[in-house]
Each structure stands twice: as structure tokens, then as C-alpha cells.
């Protein structure tokens, strides 16, 4: 039905730890596969178009038996048991077996977390998974990030009141590239404590794309109990809702369960982690491993961490403009930094424990300082913003955010340049005016023309109160007009009304 095409490989990401390869290839002619049978529409709309699949270049050949965790080749216990660390910091919700604690102290574990490519970038809600993976890395274990190229075609019903919208192959390919780059960059930047604790990025479409429906029912379906599947919390909630649940969504837990089985057999993965809403999907995997492989004792474990919530119980990670994206292409490091800088006092200490790698002693000291009379407001928030921005965007991104934050503070002595102003142009209102329109125009008139104020009277009122700024310099008189030297690098102007309201004026 579909013609095969030669695989084309390009290096997407490389480091001294690993090399990640992306392959664009056509889908096999074998039909019907399990995914094709689940898909509700004509298969050509999705399953017979090129996809992106990402694999570790040192991917080993499949093995027929479950891998046994190798003994430690280095001393990671000096950094503490990873479960103790997660528990102390509020990052441990549930584990499938208490044996995981002793296993993490004596063996080198391989831990995976799944990320479905439902958007071009991961968001703040996904960050906890990366942080927990990083904690395992820092304690001498190995991390696996699994891109859900197959499961994204089905849609995880966990925590959802409606079925996810379908994504076409081009969108999935674009999303896969975006989140693979983000995960690889973050994990590689922060893999500094142990050179051996490298990571792998895999795509589950690589083992699902040719899995035939009859083979799936024979190898996996026979071990799945319908009553147990219907008893999962994510299923019960959807069945009780007006929308109900499709069979496609109902099978999601089996797909994720088989992922764990496959990774355990072929990649030596011992642990699956996820948010607390993933408990049912994770235990589906441990059950399949127990029933199909029938190992002696506990060899596969599940671990969940709490969802990222604010003290009022609402989800943390949304702003007025939408999701807090981890990709700098979708949200600038400056705006990312500012989001964490605005965290309320009631949440900041808990987020320092959950979202940073600061020593607990330092966090406890900061909490004590917050209660003292001489505490400088937002000191804890500044530390939180710096640490999380550093983890996600690296030193370069943090420096960019700090420079912009300092330079764009009204009254700051830092000299503005065109690049710094352009760095926030997407995050604040902007307009374009001709050079002749701007030159010799009064700041009062310009601030109204640029949309900073609705009227000249409002602009004059704030000017008299000392709150009107041009390029961070306070305007003291109504007679101030725009001169050639006011135009930063001959390209832009920055108008500010108080500390927060700004407008970038581009000179055309």
C-alpha cells in the first residue's frame, strides 16, 4: 500500500555522553497494525506519512530476557538514597514496592519517564518529570526519556474530561523534534555530577508501528483483565461523565503498560516515574511484567510524584497568556524568569524544594530569614527564579534574563542596547513608527500614540508623580522631546509607566 523509502538520518543532538539520531522514514507495508486498527479514520491520513523517530546511537540489540541491574561502578551513595531525597523535598507520592528504596541504594537503576508530543514544547507541568529524572542521574542512576510518538496518536485520558484532538503526522513530527531537543538540552546541561549517568531519548513508535493487532491481543491482551482496567481512576471518572470514553482511549493504559514491558526487556529499564495521575498507567506496566515475564521478586518498580499545584489547589504553570513553555523559542528566558519571580510567599519555599537542587539547609535558612524583620522582599523568589531558569535555559539563558531584568527596570543605571530591548519585545506591547514621526515629538504625545496611555492627561498625571520613563530614565518635565540620541542604536525606544507597564517603539 505504501511505498518504502530509504531511511535518512541526521544528527540532531550530540555530546560527549551520547549522540541522538533522528530518522525520517516511511511506514512499513505490514497491515493491519494495532495502531492502525485503533485509529478511527482512514489510515492514510496519519499512518502512511513520514514520521520522526529518535533513538540513542548506542541502542543495543533486543534481548529475550529481563536485564539485571549492574552493580555500581562508582560511589553514588555519598549523595544519599534518591528516594530519601525525593521524599524530603516533597517529590515522592507513591511507590509500587518498598523494595525500590533498597534497590536504589545498592544497584544502578535505569529510570524512564514518558512525554507525549502533544505540543511543540514541553510546559511547566512536564518539568517535574525532568527534575526527578535528573535527581536519579545525580545519584548515579541512568535516565531514559520516552517520546510517545505512538501513544500521542491515541491520547492519554488521565486527568482529561474530553478526548484529545487528533494530530496529523506533520504536527507530531514537529512536536517530537521540539520536545526531544528540549529534554536533551536540559538533561545534558545538568549532567555534571556524574559523567557515567548519561541518558537516552527513545520513541515508542519504533516498536508500535509494526505491531499487528492479532499479535498484540495474543501477547498482551490475554493478560489484561477488563475489570481491573475499568477500575482505574482515570477510566472511572470518564465513564461517569456525560462524554464517556472511547475504546481507543480505553486501550491507552495497555499501550503504556507494554512500553514498560518492552523497555524492561530490551533496554534494562527498572523504574517508571510519572505524575500522580499516571499511577494506573504505571501499575498496568508492572502488572504486565509480573504476569508475562514471571520474574522472581521485584524487578520493575513504579514511582509517582505530586502534581504541581499552588497553595490554593490550582495548577501551577499557567499564566494569563497560557502555558509556561520550556522552549526559549516559545517563551523567552526573561519571561520565564519573571514568572517565577512573581510566585507568592506562600508557595516559594515549597517550590524551592520541588523545583531546584539547592541544599535543604539553604532553603531552611531562607525560610527562617523570611520571618525576620529585616528580610528583603522577593529574596526567595529571586533565588527560585535564578535556579529554575538556570536548570531549564542554562547559564546563557539565565544571564540573558538577568540582564534584561536589570536593564529594563525603570531607573536602572545599566545602559540599554537594541538587543536587550528586542529580547522582551515579544513579551510587552510594541508598535512601529516612522523616524520622522518620532523625532521632535513630545514624550507625552509619543506615550499616547504608542498606546502606553489612553490620554495626555493620564500621561501628565503620572509624569508629575515621577512614574514616566524613557529608556529607563525618569522624565521630569512635559517639554521633553525625542532627540536622535534617545533612539537606542537608531532602532528602538522604550517607554515605561511605572515599573511594569512598558511599550517598545520600533523606528521604521
Automatic annotation (TrEMBL):
<dbReference type="GO" id="GO:0009791">
    <property type="term" value="P:post-embryonic development"/>
</dbReference>
<protein>
    <recommendedName>
        <fullName>Tyrosine--tRNA ligase</fullName>
        <ecNumber>6.1.1.1</ecNumber>
    </recommendedName>
</protein>
<feature type="domain" description="Tyrosine--tRNA ligase SYY-like C-terminal">
    <location>
        <begin position="421"/>
        <end position="502"/>
    </location>
</feature>
<dbReference type="InterPro" id="IPR002305">
    <property type="entry name" value="aa-tRNA-synth_Ic"/>
</dbReference>
<dbReference type="GO" id="GO:0003723">
    <property type="term" value="F:RNA binding"/>
</dbReference>
<dbReference type="GO" id="GO:0009570">
    <property type="term" value="C:chloroplast stroma"/>
</dbReference>
<keyword id="KW-0809">Transit peptide</keyword>
<comment type="similarity">
    <text>Belongs to the class-I aminoacyl-tRNA synthetase family.</text>
</comment>
<dbReference type="GO" id="GO:0004831">
    <property type="term" value="F:tyrosine-tRNA ligase activity"/>
</dbReference>
<dbReference type="InterPro" id="IPR014729">
    <property type="entry name" value="Rossmann-like_a/b/a_fold"/>
</dbReference>
<dbReference type="InterPro" id="IPR054608">
    <property type="entry name" value="SYY-like_C"/>
</dbReference>
<dbReference type="InterPro" id="IPR024088">
    <property type="entry name" value="Tyr-tRNA-ligase_bac-type"/>
</dbReference>
<dbReference type="GO" id="GO:0006437">
    <property type="term" value="P:tyrosyl-tRNA aminoacylation"/>
</dbReference>
<keyword id="KW-0030">Aminoacyl-tRNA synthetase</keyword>
<dbReference type="InterPro" id="IPR036986">
    <property type="entry name" value="S4_RNA-bd_sf"/>
</dbReference>
<dbReference type="Pfam" id="PF22421">
    <property type="entry name" value="SYY_C-terminal"/>
</dbReference>
<keyword id="KW-0694">RNA-binding</keyword>
<dbReference type="GO" id="GO:0048608">
    <property type="term" value="P:reproductive structure development"/>
</dbReference>
<dbReference type="GO" id="GO:0005739">
    <property type="term" value="C:mitochondrion"/>
</dbReference>
<dbReference type="InterPro" id="IPR024107">
    <property type="entry name" value="Tyr-tRNA-ligase_bac_1"/>
</dbReference>
<comment type="function">
    <text>Catalyzes the attachment of tyrosine to tRNA(Tyr) in a two-step reaction: tyrosine is first activated by ATP to form Tyr-AMP and then transferred to the acceptor end of tRNA(Tyr).</text>
</comment>
<keyword id="KW-0547">Nucleotide-binding</keyword>
<dbReference type="InterPro" id="IPR001412">
    <property type="entry name" value="aa-tRNA-synth_I_CS"/>
</dbReference>
<keyword id="KW-0067">ATP-binding</keyword>
<keyword id="KW-0496">Mitochondrion</keyword>
<dbReference type="InterPro" id="IPR002307">
    <property type="entry name" value="Tyr-tRNA-ligase"/>
</dbReference>
<keyword id="KW-0648">Protein biosynthesis</keyword>
<dbReference type="GO" id="GO:0005524">
    <property type="term" value="F:ATP binding"/>
</dbReference>
<keyword id="KW-0436">Ligase</keyword>
<dbReference type="Pfam" id="PF00579">
    <property type="entry name" value="tRNA-synt_1b"/>
</dbReference>
<dbReference type="GO" id="GO:0005829">
    <property type="term" value="C:cytosol"/>
</dbReference>
